[in-house]
């Protein structure tokens, strides 16, 4: 086997015949052809006579020259007797070809072993085996070629060099390299580390005396070294393969391709490991803040719960949600919002201990996991501190971005016995904090958990309620205060679930709005109400149909077109349709609001302002926007007859509406006293339980027939 650390030896079974013969030119196939020609010529001129005493060329190795059964001349196995005169050149050609084939066979065998070793190492890389297993396999590529080789593989990163693997190195030297690897600027390695160049140091003695690597080489019997860089595709040096030589001088030329191939394989392995590590990091960390993401935080929480259970410690999980973050994005743009998120992440990370964890759970939500807290009081104190940090304004392009945070807290083992429960109960506490007006914190309670579970259940059911035909409309009559005749109805949406039964509108409407499903639900309600009004009109009952409109619906630019389409295909007379808008409907884009209302009025559809008196700018709406009627909120009607101040407010509203030529409808009339006061004040229309509760369409038809 050729040595990597000395001159190429002559094969022990090959002693040249006389002066060294020049190599036979040509390829491997040419040499085989020459061998067969020479052997054929020899055996033709001198027939082979097998002899039991003749050496077996297969059993005893290649042909050698020297005395034998053929005499003092050339010895050719299987050829009996001396070689005839004049055939010596053929015999020499035969021997040269045989020796060349042996040499080629050995070289091909070495190359095959090398390729097999390299394929094995690359397979380990593809399987993402541990790095020490891969680097050991890379050095095996070299050791299989020369078991006496002494090689060291140094990995190179931002921290410098570190020992990755070694073979053929004395144990004390390996331990020294492990504990104190050479510096990347060591004269023996600097060029390889910085410029990616092969470094051949013919003599370790030529290195500076103060170089620790030189002292280590000389102390363990090495007199020279050579360093091959492992360079990745972008030109960065990832490792250095160092061959330690027992003799002064460079390694033999035939060793260089082998060492270069091993260094290249090391570069592939280390670059693959680096890419895998980067991808794993990106999969578990938020790109904006570099904090762990939701997936990673779940794993950290599970590990922390296991550790806390073994050591009987408490954990506190704190969930933080920035309040009204959408408005910040709208005002300062997404770059401003990103700047706020990065700063909040930095503050949270700097406010906790190294053992604690901070994560961005997505959007504007963060989570903090605190180890070894002092019960609920300690968790509450930490929550207050973190909430105060969030509230400190952030300077962005000369402007201050102010944000507040809602905070939910849960504790292990007080509130949960496992990681998933701890996370869900912190979420429940956060939802409770949001429901209490935001910019506050809440520690988990079982009551909060029950409320969140109920909401989640309703959300799930509400998404399919329309598809499952679980909605229906009831109609509450509106009466003329003077004639007591039915003049119109208000369509009231009802949801009947198989599990929870009838769900109140004030419970499911806000959820439907938050989920966005209020738009298809609202359109369905409008279609049903319009069809019903058209049917009653066909029966001779021209009743005005009042339909409530969500602010989410009204803010859509296509709302007017949707209403006009429904009016068209249901056949309702537009004059019979009245859309009830709340003040929240009118608080979006003023130009959009005005254009929507003008288009609806132009189509003959009436508009009324619902829950009048509960907003802060109702009078300005009445003055500027084209409404036809106002509905006085039931909170003002409730105390009529017992509260003189309320009576004066209702009177002022009625007078104002009359001055603006608007129709007035009083909601929630439940007793005769309220009716008498409203009649005295001149209120035109009445709606409430005093007259009728909400009815099915069939009941309304029967009621109309009875009151003819």
Q: What would you note in describing this structure?
A:
With 708 residues, the chain is an alpha/beta fold. It is 47% helix and 18% strand. The protein is built from 22 helices and 21 strands. The protein has an eight-stranded mixed beta barrel, surrounded by four helices. A hairpin with a 2-residue loop joins strand 7 (357-362) and strand 8. Helix 3 (131-143) packs antiparallel against helix 7. Mean pLDDT is 81; it is low at 7-25 and 46-80.
- Count of runs of 4 or more consecutive helical residues: 22
Oligomeric state of the chains present here: single chain
What do the pLDDT scores average to? 81
For the largest sheet, list the strands in their spatial order: 13-14-16-17-18-19-20-21
> How many whole angstroms does the radius of gyration measure?
46 Å
By DSSP, the count of extended strands is 21
Structural class: alpha/beta
Helices and strands in order:
Layout (H helix, E strand, L loop, with lengths): L27 H18 L42 H39 L4 H13 L6 E8 L2 E8 L3 H9 L10 H6 L3 E3 L10 H8 L4 E8 L5 E9 L9 H30 L9 H18 L3 E8 L2 H27 L5 E6 L2 E7 L3 H17 L2 E3 L2 E3 L3 E8 L6 H17 L5 E3 L2 H20 L5 E10 L5 E12 L3 E3 L1 H11 L2 H21 L5 E5 L2 H4 L4 H12 L6 E5 L8 H13 L3 E7 L5 H7 L4 E4 L1 H4 L6 H16 L3 E4 L5 H10 L3 E2 L10 H10 L2
Parallel strand pairs: 11-12, 14-16, 16-17, 17-18, 18-19, 19-20, 20-21
Antiparallel strand pairs: 1-2, 1-5, 3-4, 4-5, 6-8, 6-11, 7-8, 9-10, 13-14, 13-21, 14-15
Helix pairs in contact: 1-2, 2-3, 2-7, 3-7, 11-12, 12-13, 14-16, 16-17
């Amino acid at each position: 086997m050729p040595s990597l650390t000395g001159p190429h030896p002559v094969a022990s079974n090959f002693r040249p015949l006389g002066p060294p013969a020049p190599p036979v030119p040509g390829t491997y196939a040419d040499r085989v052809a020459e061998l067969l020609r020479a052997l054929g010529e020899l055996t033709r001129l001198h027939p082979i006579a097998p002899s039991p005493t003749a050496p077996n060329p297969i059993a005893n190795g290649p042909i050698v020259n020297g005395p034998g059964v053929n005499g003092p001349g050339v010895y050719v196995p299987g050829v009996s007797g001396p070689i005839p005169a004049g055939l010596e050149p053929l015999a020499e050609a035969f021997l040269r070809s045989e020796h060349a084939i042996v040499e080629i066979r050995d070289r091909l065998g070495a190359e095959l072993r090398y390729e097999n070793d390299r394929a094995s190492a690359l397979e380990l890389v593809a399987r993402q085996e541990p790095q020490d297993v891969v680097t050991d396999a890379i050095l095996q590529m070299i050791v299989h070629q020369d078991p006496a080789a002494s090689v060291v593989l140094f990995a190179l990163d931002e921290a410098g060099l570190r020992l990755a693997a070694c073979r053929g190195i004395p144990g004390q030297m390996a331990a020294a390299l492990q504990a104190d690897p050479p510096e990347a600027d060591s004269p023996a390695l600097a060029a390889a580390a910085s410029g990616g160049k092969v470094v051949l140091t013919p003599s370790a003695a030529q290195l500076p005396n103060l170089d620790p690597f030189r002292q280590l080489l000389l102390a363990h019997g090495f007199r020279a070294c050579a360093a091959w860089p492992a360079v990745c595709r972008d030109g960065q040096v990832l490792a250095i393969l160092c061959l330690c030589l027992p003799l002064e001088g460079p390694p033999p030329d035939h060793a260089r391709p082998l060492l270069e191939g091993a260094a290249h394989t090391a570069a592939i392995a280390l670059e693959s490991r680096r890419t895998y590590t980067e991808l794993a990091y990106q999969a578990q960390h938020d790109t904006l803040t570099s904090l762990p993401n939701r997936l990673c935080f779940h794993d950290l929480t599970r590990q922390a719960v296991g550790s806390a259970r073994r050591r009987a410690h408490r954990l506190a999980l704190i969930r933080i949600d920035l309040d009204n973050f959408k408005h910040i994005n709208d005002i300062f743009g997404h770059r401003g919002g990103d700047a706020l998120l990065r700063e909040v992440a930095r503050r949270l990370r700097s406010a906790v201990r190294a053992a604690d964890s901070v994560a961005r759970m997505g959007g504007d939500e963060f989570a903090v996991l605190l180890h070894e807290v002092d019960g609920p009081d300690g968790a509450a104190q930490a929550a207050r501190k973190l909430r105060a940090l969030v509230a400190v304004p952030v300077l962005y392009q000369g402007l201050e971005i102010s944000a507040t945070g809602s905070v939910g807290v849960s504790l292990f083992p007080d509130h949960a016995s496992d990681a998933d429960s701890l996370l869900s109960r912190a979420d429940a506490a956060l939802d409770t904090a949001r429901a209490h007006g935001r910019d506050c914190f809440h520690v988990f309670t079982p009551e909060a958990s029950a409320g969140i579970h109920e909401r989640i259940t309703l959300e799930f059911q509400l998404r399919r309620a329309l598809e499952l035909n679980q909605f229906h409309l009831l109609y509450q009559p509106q009466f003329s205060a003077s004639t007591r005749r039915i003049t119109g109805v208000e369509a009231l949406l009802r949801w009947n679930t198989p599990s929870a039964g009838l769900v109140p509108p004030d419970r499911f409407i806000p959820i439907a709005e938050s989920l966005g499903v209020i738009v298809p639900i609202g359109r369905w309600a409008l279609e049903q109400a319009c069809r019903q009004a058209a049917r009653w009109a066909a029966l001779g009952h021209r009743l005005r149909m009042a339909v409530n409109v969500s602010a989410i619906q009204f803010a859509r630019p296509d709302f007017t077109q949707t209403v006009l389409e429904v009016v068209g295909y249901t056949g309702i007379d537009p004059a019979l349709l009245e859309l009830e808008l709340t003040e929240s409907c009118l608080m979006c884009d003023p130009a959009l609001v005005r254009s929507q209302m003008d288009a609806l009025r132009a189509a003959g559809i009436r508009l009324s302002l619902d829950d009048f008196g509960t907003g802060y700018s109702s009078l300005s709406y009445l003055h500027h926007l084209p409404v036809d009627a106002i509905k006085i909120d039931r909170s003002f009607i409730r105390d009529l007859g017992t509260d003189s101040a309320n009576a004066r407010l209702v009177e002022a509203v009625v007078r104002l509406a009359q001055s603006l030529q608007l129709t007035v409808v009083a909601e929630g009339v439940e007793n005769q006293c309220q009716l008498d006061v409203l009649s005295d004040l001149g209120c035109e229309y009445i709606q409430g339980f005093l007259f009728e509760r909400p009815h099915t369409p069939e009941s309304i038809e029967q009621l109309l027939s009875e009151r003819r």
